[in-house]
Amino acid sequence: MAIAVYTSTDEKWSFAEQTTWGTAVGDSAAQVGILTEGFGINSEINFRNPPRARAQRYSHTNDVVADTKGVVFNSDGANGPGVKDYIDYLFYGVMQNVTESSGTPFQKTFTFGQTQPDFSANAGIFFTLWNKAQVASTSQKLYDAIISELTLSCAPDANESILWAAPTWIGRTHSDTANPSGTVTYPDFASTDQFNFYDIGVATLGGSSVVLGNNGVSITIRNNASKVGQSSGVPQTFALPRYEVEMSWHILWDSVARTMMSNARAGTAVAFELEWGSSGSDGHLEFTGSSKIMNAVNLEHAQEGNFVTVNLACEGIYGTTEPFQVIHSNAVDRGW
């Protein structure tokens, strides 16, 4: 008997911007390929077993009910290189607020808006996501999807020193019998399209340059998305009740680190900047904002040349201080 064996390396992952909430992008539409070794979309099922008095001492078949009512489907293990012609989708997907300039290099500025977009009125950005399998009618499809959390990391000895992006996609509707046929175009992966640890041009805390250690930098952005309402067995939309950003910087123990220790003790706000490239140029990526240190920055028997981890939570004051801002240019007009 012949046995066909397929693995995640035989599959394609892709997505497309969806224009109408509640209506998935057609399977024949052009799609953006995701550079990944594969991940999964959890096929959530509600198993309901309410108690019944049936005069028997074990569960009755009719009392065990399965359905998908109210389920939110989540991706699991999505990660890959955050190259310049792909990562802007992720920023918009989780932050849901962007201003794009006209003309090359089409600079995009992402911030947290005080009012979230109304997805049900087709505002903001949301996606249809595919996992194309080898066997017909076994592909997964997730739509009305946004990103609830995005973790970025860049360290010299991890992921080939490339900025790595791990988004969590969530969606209202899922199918595992799709047949995607549209052309999948992958973002460029040349050296100039990557954000390499050794190409970081600016890394400052409190206005002072820091030397990054082997653990580099990690940034987690989340919007705490939650389901809202009900319609035909599924939630109507998502609420983004609270935006949060947590960062971890591994820095050299020096005079700047000592200042961070003093700031931690005093609860002093610390400005930060992390930048690749230069403003107004293709491939520019910059993170800025205001934060507070959330750990005791001290190292027993600290010696010059040792490194410490500084954990920060981004904090701001509405109308005056942006807690977190991303500026990115990739010479692509997204029409945002």
What average pLDDT do the residues reach? Answer: 93
**Helix vs. strand class:** mainly beta
Q: How do the SSEs run, as a string of H and E? A: EEEEEEEHEEEEEEEEEEEEHEEEE
Instruction: Compute the number of strand runs.
Output: 23
Count of distinct structural domains: 1
Secondary structure tally, helices: 2
Beta-strand residue fraction: 35-45%
Question: Which descriptor suits the 3D outline?
Answer: globular
Low-confidence segments:
none
Task: Specify the biggest β-sheet.
Answer: 19 strands, mixed
- Percent helix, as a range, is under 10%
Using only C-alpha atoms, the radius of gyration works out to: 23 Å
CA(first)-CA(last) distance: 53 Å
Characterise the protein shown here.
- The protein is mainly β.
- The chain is built from two helices and 23 strands.
- The strands form three sheets. The chain has a 19-stranded mixed β-sheet that branches.
- The termini are far apart.
What does this entry show, briefly?
The chain has helices spanning 87-95, 255-266, and strands spanning 12-18, 31-33, 40-41, 46-48, 65-67, 73-76, 80-81, 98-100, 108-110, 126-132, 139-154, 164-178, 184-185, 200-205, 208-209, 212-222, 226-228, 237-239, 244-252, 269-276, 285-293, 307-314, 324-328. It is mostly beta strands and 336 residues long.
What distinguishing features does this structure have?
single chain, 336 residues, mainly beta, 2 helices, 40% strand, globular
